Amino acid sequence: MSESSQKKIDRPTSPHLQVYRLPLTALMSITHRATGVVLILGTLLVAAFLISAATSEPIYNMVMFAAGSKFGKIILLLWTAALYFHMCNGIRHLVWDTGALLEKGAAMRTNYIVLMFAFVLTAATWACAYLF
Amino acid sequence: MSKHSDSKFINPLRKAKGLGSAHHGTESWMAMKVTAIANVPLLMWLMYSIVKMHGASHGEFTAWLANPVNAVLMILVIVFAFYHAVLGAQEIVEDYIHCKCLKMVKLIGQKLFFVGLGVACIFSVLKIALAG
Predict the structure, then answer these.
(1) Which end of chain B is more exposed for a tag (fewer CB within 10 A), N or C?
(2) Are B110 and B89 in contact (CB under 8 A)?
(3) A interface test, pick of B37, B50, B65 with most A CB neighbours within 10 Å
């Protein structure tokens, strides 16, 4: 074995996350995973509503009171946004699975479409909840 | 040469079934896609329902959930969303946790957790729906 192959080469692998500015497509990818984690935690919210409703009225009222508080609303807004982002980007993943829209330009354009749909759906949901 | 030595010990059936180094096939990938497709309409229904029912009293909420259509759809949400969550959580653990024993503890733990939470949610829906 040659000497050079035994020497430990201490250099970053590429693309090195600390110095590499992630393009939007990569940011969307990691956000898909991050929103997935948010939604995993969000299953606890759904469980809290259902289990409390089945348990008793006072406990259901407590959960509803917490959900209606300022902090509760922020959590619910984040959950809504995470759900719509994950759903829209997930649909793009399903399209990608067919082999379509994988080119760099198409991937970049659909980034904005996914973001726009996620934003509009989140805004529309909260507007409907408060206006109607 | 290596091709011959491989095929000597590895049954071609293994290749045909798509079993690679992970020792399992494409089932979990497929399950991810199927649950994703199911989740799109189910979660749109859930969001619509939350908007419609937000701020509902205990009586209003249980009366709504006692409707068979709503009860069945809610159970489907729990089954498909939780299954999708388990698969996603598994993917994240497989990617980021490299200590083998810790990985097993996490994988088994989160499966048991989601099964437990899912059964609790489904039981809650049934309790409300069947109580009338």
Answers:
(1) N
(2) yes
(3) B50
What is the predicted ipTM? 0.86
CB B40 within 8 A of CB A118: no
B59, B74, B81 member nearest A43 (Cβ): B81
Residue A117's domain is classified under what CATH number?
Answer: 1.20.1300.10
Tens digits of residue pLDDT in B62-106: 999 999 999 999 999 999 999 999 999 999 998 888 888 888 888
Domain range for A57 is 29-125
Cβ contact B37–A94 (<8 Å): yes
Q: Is residue A95 part of a domain?
A: yes
pLDDT digits (tens, 9 = 90+) for A52-88: 999 999 999 999 999 999 999 999 999 999 999 999 9
Candidates B56, B50, B57; CA nearest to B77 is B50
Query: CB atoms < 10 A from the CB of B56, how many?
Result: 16
